[in-house]
Backbone:
């Protein structure tokens, strides 16, 4: 058996070893027929959103820049990472989010990984944004590392964070984000204390004694007894050191989860522990959060919903070819030819697509100025603009999501 896990390494990705085979055959044909250096203008557009999605978060630019860096003669343009967009502009035209310009033979094999990076990163970031929109000022933690291929854990956590998650649990993901990993305690800790020490509640005290004081004390309170009973025990044992209690009750034993949360919150308040927060996890998504929040939940651990988020579908197409030093508009049926610019009114979050040769438009809603969104990130394979930091991208997403009514973002 091969001594490696089933994933592609950085070098294998850079060598285009994960591409679709027809691109390899195309490259060979272009070389043999003297067309390898034909310069093309290729647009990446949003094809479709998952059902019920009206908006999506554009993400994955960081990975694409690394993928294309060093490709001689290739220029790459993109809208800023974290741009929240619809699938079509105000007039119904598909939105170009990225442009690759250069000799086609040099980058033909990279279409497959490019689209994969954008589709999966955007899916994760969009789902995280939807969850955070539903949670509002409540805390959202990404617990999704165990719901994806482990080699992808940093990728999942990175894009969950920029989409809106306030913290992430996977260690490597947090490290690459430059933040501390966030987490509570597993049921296994309490089970071992119960089996060996005869008292699972001693696990809460052991956590308090051993773990760095900077870490919030959040007791898992649904392992053996009624959630309300365990929450009160934890509050009495840890006192003011207890930041919150976590309910991760299996759905098979849960009943009405909102009612359980309501009871725990009330009993804590009635016994003088109103400062103890309720953290919930297990099957949480943007649809379940509102009801649980109204019941008293104040923080949400979200796993599968974000880590296994539906993809945002993108397509990549030639829309112009350099023939004798002149760009000739040409595209397959169903696509719009020519070199284009995407404009946005930041006030109205309205997009308009225009040909490069056309005058910049005015916003069709407010009549104000519109800003071109596509910026150059690579010139002749060299980075001329660095992708923004996770914090900067996260703030961009947040500022846009705040402008979108709940019913327009989470349906």
Residues:
């Amino acid at each position: 058996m091969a001594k490696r896990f089933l994933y592609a390494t950085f070098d294998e990705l850079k060598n285009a070893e994960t591409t679709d085979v027809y691109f390899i055959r195309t490259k060979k044909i272009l070389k043999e027929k003297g067309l390898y250096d034909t310069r093309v203008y290729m647009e990446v557009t949003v094809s479709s959103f998952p059902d019920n999605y009206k908006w999506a978060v554009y993400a994955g630019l960081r990975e694409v820049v690394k993928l294309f860096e060093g490709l001689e003669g290739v220029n790459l343009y993109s809208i800023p990472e974290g741009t929240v967009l619809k699938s079509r502009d105000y007039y119904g035209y598909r939105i170009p989010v990225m442009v690759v310009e250069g000799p086609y033979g040099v980058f033909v094999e990279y279409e497959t990984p490019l689209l994969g990076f954008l589709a999966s990163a955007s899916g994760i970031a969009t789902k995280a944004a939807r969850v955070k929109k539903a949670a509002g000022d409540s805390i959202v933690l990404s617990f999704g590392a165990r719901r994806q291929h482990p080699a992808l854990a940093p990728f999942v956590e990175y894009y969950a964070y920029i989409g809106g998650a306030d913290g992430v649990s996977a260690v490597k993901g947090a490290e690459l984000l430059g933040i501390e990993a966030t987490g509570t305690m597993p049921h296994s800790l309490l089970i071992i204390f119960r089996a060996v020490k005869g008292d699972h509640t001693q696990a809460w005290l052991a956590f308090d004694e051993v773990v760095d004081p900077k870490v919030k004390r959040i007791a898992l309170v649904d392992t053996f007894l009624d959630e309300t009973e365990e929450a009160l025990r934890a509050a009495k044992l840890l006192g003011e050191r207890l930041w919150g209690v976590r309910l991760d009750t299996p759905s098979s034993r849960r009943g009405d989860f909102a009612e359980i949360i309501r009871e725990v919150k009330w009993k804590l308040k009635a016994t003088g522990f109103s400062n103890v927060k309720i953290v919930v996890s297990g099957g949480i998504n943007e649809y379940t959060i509102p009801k649980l929040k109204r019941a008293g939940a104040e923080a949400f651990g979200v796993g599968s919903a974000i880590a296994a988020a539906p993809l945002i579908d993108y397509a990549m197409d030639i829309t112009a070819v350099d023939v004798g030093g002149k760009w000739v508009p040409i595209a397959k049926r169903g696509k719009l030819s020519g070199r284009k610019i995407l404009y946005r009114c930041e006030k109205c979050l309205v997009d308009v697509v225009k040909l490069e040769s056309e005058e910049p438009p005015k916003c069709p809603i407010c009549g104000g100025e519109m800003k071109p969104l596509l910026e150059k990130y690579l010139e002749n394979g060299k980075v001329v603009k660095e992708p923004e930091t996770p914090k900067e991208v996260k703030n961009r997403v947040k500022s846009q999501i705040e402008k979108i009514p709940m019913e327009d973002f989470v349906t």
Q: What stands out?
A: The first strand starts at residue 39 and ends at 48. The CA atoms of residues 318 and 394 lie 31 Å apart. The chain has a mean pLDDT of 95.
